[in-house]
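Hi all, posting the design record for the shared folder.

TITLE: backbone redesign
STEP: 1 of 1
STRUCTURE INPUT:
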């Protein structure tokens, strides 16, 4: 795939970029390595000053950065602004909390281990490679970069090939805030070059957000090199609605969960699992709201759903829907590729799904919702857990005991009760099963790329 900005609303190529050759890649790894040596000798107060300055720069540039995001991957402009501001918030969060998250921990009674003093300290690993996707071009990177730099690591970024402007924007952001030269370097390379970067002795760890095949490839290389890896992969999140729920509120939130970011979110609700007693009511509200969404130019403030980011991505979504329809699925909304320029796909609702349909087990990375009617909570959990994914989940119920039961039995990295999954700087984020391992955000996220060192003194 060429490294290029292609406007998904029109299909027109805006600009292409020459990939970095091997000499430039080596030069940039060297810059990151040198910066890591400098960063580990700085204190938290200095890093916090730099991080706050970078956050201020980003926030002041919100309009330009938002337009860049929308141009490259097609999300509605209001959502792009929100992404930029969320990045600035996360940067400030780690600037203010990194020192406490990584504070030394001493045993209250070191004599129990025959010492005068004993405990643990957190220390940075060094250069960390981030392999990032296009769906949140700034946020996916910042949620790694802010904690990594505040811990004293430096970062290398291999971004998706369809968001090069975002990648190059991030290449300069932290240095503009005052971080040492080389603290965060973008590598304009293809996926085939990633393994060689992981294998470089100067690179100490890797994090990837992306597809399951990409995650397996990165994990294999990192495992061979015995290097730390964090993987946030795909998701086919269940959104469960029980009879005690506020059905209209659940349906309204379900629509937002399914079509936010044009439906291209790993943590989006994708499979809507509804108790038979309230199924018809939920479906009526849900389908009406999905049909009412405005699909159009993502630069238009009134647009609810823009185009999918890539032509191949739309083809994948269309194939999943066509496969289900051919095998008997009912189309309650949308369901076909529109005759217009750009890579649009309408908000789509499918019902009557059977196990032989691909969409039952595969992730639909677009505004396509799957509906399931279930008889009780046990069947709801069986359907929820039947895929190989385990990223997040949502449960709508006002019964406390029922809420607790679902929290216990859902195979997921998170359960959101009476809401939709959202990533917050204050809460750990990540999945289980084929959705990956490790955590981002909160204290857990900053600790992933640190060495927890035990210190014992006689």
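Okay, here is what came back for every position:
SEQUENCE:
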């Amino acid at each position: 795939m060429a490294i290029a900005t292609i406007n998904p609303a029109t299909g027109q190529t805006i600009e292409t970029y020459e990939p970095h050759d091997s000499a430039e890649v080596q030069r940039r790894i060297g810059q990151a390595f040198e910066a890591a040596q400098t960063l580990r000798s700085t204190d938290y107060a200095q890093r916090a000053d730099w991080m706050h300055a970078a956050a201020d720069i980003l926030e002041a540039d919100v309009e330009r950065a938002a337009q860049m995001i929308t141009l490259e991957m097609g999300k509605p402009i209001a959502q792009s602004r929100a992404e930029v501001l969320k990045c600035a918030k996360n940067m400030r969060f780690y600037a203010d909390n990194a020192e406490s998250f990584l504070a030394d921990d001493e045993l209250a009674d070191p004599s129990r281990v025959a010492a005068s003093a004993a405990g643990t300290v957190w220390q940075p690993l060094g250069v960390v490679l981030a392999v990032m996707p296009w769906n949140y071009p700034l946020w996916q990177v910042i949620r790694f970069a802010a904690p990594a730099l505040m811990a004293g690591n430096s970062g290398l970024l291999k971004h998706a090939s369809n968001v090069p402007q975002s990648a190059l924007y991030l290449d300069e952001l932290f240095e503009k805030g005052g971080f040492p030269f080389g603290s965060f370097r973008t590598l304009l390379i293809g996926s085939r070059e990633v393994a060689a970067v992981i294998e470089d002795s100067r690179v100490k760890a890797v994090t990837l957000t992306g597809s399951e095949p990409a995650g397996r490839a990165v994990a294999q290389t990192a495992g061979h090199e015995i290097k730390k890896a964090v993987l946030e992969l795909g998701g086919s999140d269940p959104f469960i609605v029980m009879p005690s729920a506020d059905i209209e509120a659940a349906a309204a939130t379900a629509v937002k969960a399914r079509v936010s970011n044009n439906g291209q979110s790993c943590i989006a609700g994708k499979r809507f699992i509804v108790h038979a007693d309230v199924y018809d009511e939920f479906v009526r509200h849900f389908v009406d709201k999905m049909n009412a969404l405005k699909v159009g130019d993502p630069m238009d403030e009134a647009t609810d759903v823009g185009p999918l980011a890539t032509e191949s991505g739309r083809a994948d979504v269309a194939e999943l829907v066509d496969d289900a329809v051919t095998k008997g699925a009912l189309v309650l909304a949308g369901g076909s590729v529109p005759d217009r320029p750009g890579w649009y796909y309408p908000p789509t609702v499918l019902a009557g799904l059977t196990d032989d349909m691909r969409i039952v087990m595969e992730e639909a990375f677009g505004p396509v919702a799957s509906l399931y009617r279930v008889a009780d909570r046990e069947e709801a959990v069986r359907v929820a857990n039947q895929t190989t994914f385990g990223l997040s989940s949502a449960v709508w119920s006002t019964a406390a005991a029922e809420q607790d039961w679902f929290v216990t039995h859902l195979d997921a990295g998170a359960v959101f009760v009476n809401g939709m999954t959202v990533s917050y700087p204050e809460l750990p984020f990540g999945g289980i099963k084929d959705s990956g391992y490790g955590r981002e955000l909160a204290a857990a996220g900053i600790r992933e790329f640190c060495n927890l060192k035990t210190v014992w003194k006689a």
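COMMENT: Residues 77-101 form the longest helix (25 residues).
Let me know if anyone wants the other runs.
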